[in-house]
Amino acid sequence: MTKVSMTVNGKAVSGEVEGRTLLSSFLREGLGLTGTHVGCDTSQCGACVVHVDGKPVKSCTVFAADVAGASVKTIEGMANADGSLSVLQQAFQDHHGLQCGFCTPGMVMSSAALLAENPKPTEHEVRHHLEGNICRCTGYHNIVKAVMAASGQDVSAVAAE
Amino acid sequence: MPKDHGIGASLKRREDVRFLTGRGVYTDDMALHGQTYAVFVRSTVAHGRIKSVNTAKAAAMPGVLAVFTGEDFKDVGGNPAGWLINSRDGTPMREPKRPVLAHGKVRHVGDAYAAVVAETYAQAKDAAQQIADDSVIEELPAIVDMKAAVADASNRVHDEIPDNLCFDWGWIEDNRAAVDAAMQAAPHKVTLELVNNRLVPNAMEPRASIGEYNPGTGDYKLTTTSQNPHLTRLLVAAFVLGIPENKLTVVAPDVGGGFGSKIYHYGEEALVLAAAKKLARPVRWTAERSESFLTDAHGRDHVTKIELGCTKDGQILAIRTETLANVGAYLSNFSTATPTFLHGTLMAGPYKVPHVYVNVKTVFTNTAPVDAYRGAGRPEATYSLERIIDKMCRELNLDPFEVRRKNLLTPDQFPYTTPVGLVYDTGNYQATLDKAMAMADVSGFAKRAAESKARGKLRGMGLSTWIEACGIAPSHLVGILGSRVGLYDAATVRVNATGNISVMTGAHSHGQGHETVFAQIVAEKLGIPESSVEIVHGDTSKIPFGMGSYGSRSLAVCGTAMTKAVDKIIAKGKKIAAHMLEASEGDITFEDGKFQVAGTDKAKTFGEIAFSAYVPHNYPLETLEPGLEETAFYDPANFTYPAGAYICEVEVDEGTGKVDVVAFHCADDFGNVMNPLIVEGQVHGGVGQGIGQALLEFTTYDENGQLLTGSYMDYPMPRAEDVPFYNVDYSCQTPCTHNPLGVKGCGEAGAIGSPPAVVNAVIDALHRGGHTHVKHIDMPVSPSRVWSAING
Ligand code: FES
Ligand code: FES
Questions:
Q1: pLDDT one-digit tens code per residue, A30-46
Q2: Dihedral sign, Cα of residue B366, residue B368, residue B369, residue B372
Q3: Mutating which of B4, B10, B13, B19 best tests the A interface, going by the most A Cβ atoms within 10 A?
Q4: Ligand 1 pocket test, candidate residues A28, A58, A63, A74, most atoms within 8 A of CB
Q5: Residue A161: which pLDDT band, with cuts at 50, 70 and 90?
Q6: How many whole angstroms separate alpha carbon B186 and alpha carbon B177?
Q7: Residue B624's CB: how many other CB atoms inside 10 A?
Q8: Average pLDDT of B368-390?
Q9: What is B27-140+204-257+262-295's CATH number, 3.30.870.10, 3.90.1170.50, 3.30.360.10, 3.20.20.370?
Q10: B693: closest CA among B382, B363, B258?
Q11: Is the pTM of this model over 0.80?
């Protein structure tokens, strides 16, 4: 067991981890931040995406010890300071971009990373960017629409809600 | 102006806020004081005789608290099949015991034969590996292929079942001769052999269960990823472990999708409860995705020969099918109903076909159990039917739109009794066909095809006109058909003294948005804001009873129970109001949240009545109990029959065989629509899964019964890039005639109607490209299959 310290959602945290402890486990079990989900064991589903120093990372593929000292942001840190939903989160609700909610944290974190780099992505760019995030519920329609809407684009012409 | 509240409003979902902020609470998110971890020891061979399971070393390993083997559960009950199906000769289906842990034999890769509980997950995992190392399992030849399974009596999944056949079912057996004769006499006959590919449901939340036991009271609690906690309680308590039902609470908290796979009771649930009792500590288990692939009930897996007799101008005269349906190694709870009554009864489709006969042989193999997956039996029926109609059109050089129109039932023919045992209550199939054709701009297709061609692509258009029976179901009917449970539902409406409301529903939401849409209905009926209504679901200790959510039944069945309970509230409110307003009950009206003496301005608000029911100072106590809470159970009079027309356009790359879905149009009739936003989302999701089945997904076991597609590296899940925006319409509405909301259900439509539309479109594209020798391509219509078909 070694001690690891990092910043999570703006707060300094530390905990004892084994060398094999994944960041996803550290967040979920160590810190009780269960918004980060684990949907697979082959780094394919993207339910576990968080930001590490601003970059999207599948938290099931990195060891907690490897991100010592980093700044980590999870879904719990995505709302506005007053607790209201951020523009992106609000767009997911407005456009029904989630059903069971299990893929949602990863979708939001991945999409936020896209919008940070590409403020007005095309439909194709959104779909391509989300290639590492699986959703079984929505057929992706409303997720793509929500991300485009969050970027300020008019999505009213997209077939149906 | 679209409505902004109540029935029909596209209200945003209230549950979203918790999911979008990471505050959803799924089973694996719960941390419990003193919790322990269970890990299962799973067979690595598909078929084997258990010679010895040696747990001594594992039991002595650090942190290990308990070990279990099949021996520990050999005297408790098995996990039963929910439907008894009789074979054509009247004999009952073969029903082998499905134990908590395998005993004697292992029957599929992933079949659990031991389990370890330890202080930490890592310790449990290490000890489970030790048991695997210390056990001797004699490998037997695997039974994978269905045809071989029934042909070879020497190799048996269950030693007592010689031909690996669960049943040989004929529907309707008495009609067989007449159907054969009609087929014989038909001027034209079409034959098609097809495979409905085996799918893994893959809800994104893996299955998880936590068992708890209170030694002081003897109470058990199971928190689990379930679509129907009451049924799970019944199965675990009464059938498997022998616990009184009133000593077991089952909670299904936030559940991350189900699509059928979480309807059923699984052995892990019984194990964590038994272990919790033994240790008097919480015992938790969460599937790794690889375990989900190996052990969640899979879907589909039919091999079918369908024949169709028709006139030369495309009037369908007779349909006959023969299907081998894979049931896997054990009978999962609905597995015997899925290929029979959810499949054979739909084989007439939305058409007027005088003669239909369906034969299904259900076969045991050394593979994971197969059961209902989104659509369950109805996608298989629809696919067979819509593919062979398409083939008929090609053989006879007929227009597929006109042929559908010619054969569709017309609105004046309802109620219509099909030759396969259903009574369709209402519909307008021409309307949805017209709507879909308008949405798809069918007349503009040639121009689009020319544009595609200019880009080097073959464009094709495919149609499917589909129907399903859902909202299961009338208990008396399913009872006749072999169901061992009733399929009603229940709800309690509790009005609190201050006028806000808790509604306890037997339906369970795992993505469908019940918390929002059920509240809309109650709020509209009572004339109060949605925000005063709370929907409670998924906890057997709070809810009267319920059969859960599957088969698009939540709104049609449970929503009706809820509506009836609200009606009872209103009726009681009228009695209270009559007393308070000194009027006769018959003169009280209720509208917009107000009880009023008709023709006067004397009125009491809903809130005043609620308060009076709990503070009964001026109240008819001699004749009326205080309090305002009502429960209703509702058993539907019939199934509901959503239907629609789907049109898919694809582009095929002749060089690579790759298919792209470039447009998808859905015109559905769901009856009345309560929340359009949610309904559209349900269709999107279903179509996404249908496109996945049609183009991408497949489940392959090799000849040794090893699952080759056991992870997301190998099992191609549809990704955002694989699907288009969908064009969805639900404006053609023929309300269901036998439930008060007039609703039919929308959850499975997309998955039922879409696969044949996609495959028909691919065949159309190939024919337009001159590849007229291609009669059929099995799903998934992958690049290699398309390329081989073109070049074959
Ligand atoms: S859990 Fe990290 S990618 Fe699936
Ligand atoms: S919302 Fe359920 S997996 Fe995406």
A1: 999 999 999 999 999 99
A2: negative
A3: B19
A4: A58
A5: very low
A6: 14
A7: 15
A8: 97
A9: 3.90.1170.50
A10: B382
A11: yes
